[in-house]
Amino acid sequence: MVIFWLLLTAMHELFDFQIDITASLIATLLSVIVSVFIYQVRGHFFEFMTRAFQGSSYGYRQKLDIFTGKIHSVFSLKEQGGELLSLLVRAINIKQACLLFPEADSEDFSCQFCEPKDRQNQLIELRLKAGNPIIKYLEKEQKPLSRENLNILPPFMGLWEKEKEEIDSKEIEHFMPLISRDRLIAILVLGKKHSGRYTLEDFNIIEDVTSRVAVSMEKEYLRSS
Questions:
Q1: CB within 8 A of 80, min separation 6: which ones?
Q2: What is the CA radius of gyration of the chain?
Q3: Reduced to 3 states, what is the DSSP secondary structure of residue 56?
Q4: What is the pLDDT of residues 165-194, one digit of tens each?
Q5: Residue 221 to residues 64, 104, 129, 131: CA-CA distances in angstroms?
Q6: Which of 171, 178, 172, 182 is closest to 206 using CA atoms?
């Protein structure tokens, strides 16, 4: 509205345009119409630009957000884990991923769900032994661990060379902790993306998802154990 009045003032100064009641009413009406139009269109414009930028992953990101919001009503760990991974790898464009849960008898973390669900997935047989420095780090720090940090942080000097080689050969990029009631209840293991590196936006989505699903997944895990 201010812009229209500035235009009227400029026209008055440059062309000796007379600002009377009629001109004022027309300017006010036009400014209201334009303001309403911009308000209505901006949401659609933002969605259009987001779709264009994210491509096919846009729809999966929307589905992932909806699923994490209603996961408390999914009363099966199999459905929770399977659907979560299926949507996540497509939303972030990840080659392979898996969810590790602790085994009741050994406390080793082993693969319970993986995506894609075929024998070519190198993460199917992934297992982290109880007491593994990776598990200890995730329990204590409660934050993501990257493959690069495995090679430079002191806590991982105790990793066997065979374990490091396994992580490299399986092309593991990140270990993401699922924390519930201040406890490590699962580990989300992420492989490489189909193209490019993980972005800040990717991490924001993944961390938001893991924080929202942890409590529900712990409940169903304890129920199924």
A1: 71, 74, 213, 216, 217, 220
A2: 26
A3: coil
A4: 899 999 999 999 999 999 999 999 999 999
A5: 20, 11, 19, 21
A6: 178
Query: Long-range pairs for 30-34 at CB < 8 Å and ≥24 separation?
Result: 30/4, 31/1, 31/3, 31/4, 32/1
pLDDT tens digits, one per residue of 104-152: 888 899 999 999 988 788 999 999 999 899 999 999 999 999 999 988 8
Cβ atoms of 89 and 96 within 8 Å: the answer is: yes
Question: Which residues, in sequence order, are CB contacts of 59 under 8 Å at separation 6+?
Answer: none
Q: Which amino acid does the sequence have at 119?
A: R
pTM: 0.77
CA distance 189 to 174: 6
Pull the structure tokens for residue 134: 């990776």
